[in-house]
């Protein structure tokens, strides 16, 4: 069973509530997602590897601890995943970035790939795969399957919102991939939307319909 971590900090809950409101503007929605992503990065990267470095303060020599940002790869599932990317990159600016283009066929909700670009040396890297909504799980499952072809050191999946159906599907397909989320909502509806949810994340981030 994959680890599920609900990052339920009051700051995140507050911002997520604003995002859910239907009257929240595109500009504010995008900004709130960006802020939540930065806050979530703090927990998502809690166990990332660090190494000792010898430094000198103005007063004396000492040993500090640093993460190797270049070993971290944020992989965005297009297009909504890009809404999480900048917030994460703000705290790990040296990270590499990959993109996976997947869309859900409206009738079957099956994931179809149209773009795939990753950095090299994946076996040396820790992947943080990002997509705001883990709904049916089809897209995230397909993305993880593709990433595993490159044998990365580790994969974590980060979303803003999910539901019991999405967690179960992901757990069944990839029990080795931990899921980080800001909230677990009540259910998936017949159209593949999370309820109560926040609507279509991509449309709300980019102001499309
Ligand atoms: N994707 C979205 O953007 N919203 C949902 O509720 C489910 C999937």
UniProtKB/TrEMBL annotation:
<feature type="binding site">
    <location>
        <position position="104"/>
    </location>
    <ligand>
        <name>5-phospho-alpha-D-ribose 1-diphosphate</name>
    </ligand>
</feature>
<feature type="domain" description="Phosphoribosyltransferase">
    <location>
        <begin position="6"/>
        <end position="208"/>
    </location>
</feature>
<dbReference type="GO" id="GO:0044206">
    <property type="term" value="P:UMP salvage"/>
</dbReference>
<comment type="pathway">
    <text>Pyrimidine metabolism; UMP biosynthesis via salvage pathway; UMP from uracil: step 1/1.</text>
</comment>
<feature type="binding site">
    <location>
        <position position="194"/>
    </location>
    <ligand>
        <name>uracil</name>
    </ligand>
</feature>
<dbReference type="GO" id="GO:0005525">
    <property type="term" value="F:GTP binding"/>
</dbReference>
<dbReference type="InterPro" id="IPR005765">
    <property type="entry name" value="UPRT"/>
</dbReference>
<feature type="binding site">
    <location>
        <begin position="131"/>
        <end position="139"/>
    </location>
    <ligand>
        <name>5-phospho-alpha-D-ribose 1-diphosphate</name>
    </ligand>
</feature>
<dbReference type="GO" id="GO:0005737">
    <property type="term" value="C:cytoplasm"/>
</dbReference>
<feature type="binding site">
    <location>
        <position position="79"/>
    </location>
    <ligand>
        <name>5-phospho-alpha-D-ribose 1-diphosphate</name>
    </ligand>
</feature>
<dbReference type="GO" id="GO:0000287">
    <property type="term" value="F:magnesium ion binding"/>
</dbReference>
<dbReference type="InterPro" id="IPR029057">
    <property type="entry name" value="PRTase-like"/>
</dbReference>
<keyword id="KW-0547">Nucleotide-binding</keyword>
<keyword id="KW-0328">Glycosyltransferase</keyword>
<protein>
    <recommendedName>
        <fullName>Uracil phosphoribosyltransferase</fullName>
        <ecNumber>2.4.2.9</ecNumber>
    </recommendedName>
</protein>
<keyword id="KW-0342">GTP-binding</keyword>
<keyword id="KW-0808">Transferase</keyword>
<keyword id="KW-0460">Magnesium</keyword>
<comment type="function">
    <text>Catalyzes the conversion of uracil and 5-phospho-alpha-D-ribose 1-diphosphate (PRPP) to UMP and diphosphate.</text>
</comment>
<keyword id="KW-0021">Allosteric enzyme</keyword>
<feature type="binding site">
    <location>
        <position position="200"/>
    </location>
    <ligand>
        <name>5-phospho-alpha-D-ribose 1-diphosphate</name>
    </ligand>
</feature>
<feature type="binding site">
    <location>
        <begin position="199"/>
        <end position="201"/>
    </location>
    <ligand>
        <name>uracil</name>
    </ligand>
</feature>
<dbReference type="Pfam" id="PF14681">
    <property type="entry name" value="UPRTase"/>
</dbReference>
<dbReference type="InterPro" id="IPR034332">
    <property type="entry name" value="Upp_B"/>
</dbReference>
<comment type="similarity">
    <text>Belongs to the UPRTase family.</text>
</comment>
<dbReference type="InterPro" id="IPR050054">
    <property type="entry name" value="UPRTase/APRTase"/>
</dbReference>
<dbReference type="GO" id="GO:0004845">
    <property type="term" value="F:uracil phosphoribosyltransferase activity"/>
</dbReference>
<dbReference type="InterPro" id="IPR000836">
    <property type="entry name" value="PRTase_dom"/>
</dbReference>
<dbReference type="GO" id="GO:0006223">
    <property type="term" value="P:uracil salvage"/>
</dbReference>
């Amino acid at each position: 069973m994959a680890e599920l971590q609900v990052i339920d900090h009051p700051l995140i809950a507050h911002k997520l509530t604003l995002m859910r409101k239907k009257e929240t503007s595109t500009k504010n929605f995008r900004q709130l997602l960006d802020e939540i992503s930065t806050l979530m990065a703090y927990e998502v990267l809690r166990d990332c590897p660090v190494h000792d470095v010898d430094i000198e303060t103005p007063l004396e020599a000492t040993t500090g601890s640093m993460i190797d940002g270049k070993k971290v790869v944020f992989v965005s599932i297009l297009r909504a995943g890009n809404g999480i990317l900048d917030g994460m990159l703000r705290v790990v600016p040296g990270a590499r970035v990959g993109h996976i283009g997947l869309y859900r066929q409206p009738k079957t909700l099956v994931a179809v790939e149209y773009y795939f670009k990753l950095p090299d040396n994946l076996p040396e890297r820790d992947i943080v795969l990002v997509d705001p909504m883990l709904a049916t799980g089809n897209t995230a499952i397909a993305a993880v399957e593709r990433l595993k072809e490159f044998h990365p050191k580790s994969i974590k999946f980060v979303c803003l919102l999910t539901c019991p159906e999405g967690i179960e599907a992901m757990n069944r397909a990839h029990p080795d991939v931990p899921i980080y989320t800001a909230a677990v909502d009540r259910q998936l509806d017949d159209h593949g939307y999370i309820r109560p949810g926040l609507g279509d994340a991509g449309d709300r981030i980019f102001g499309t319909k």
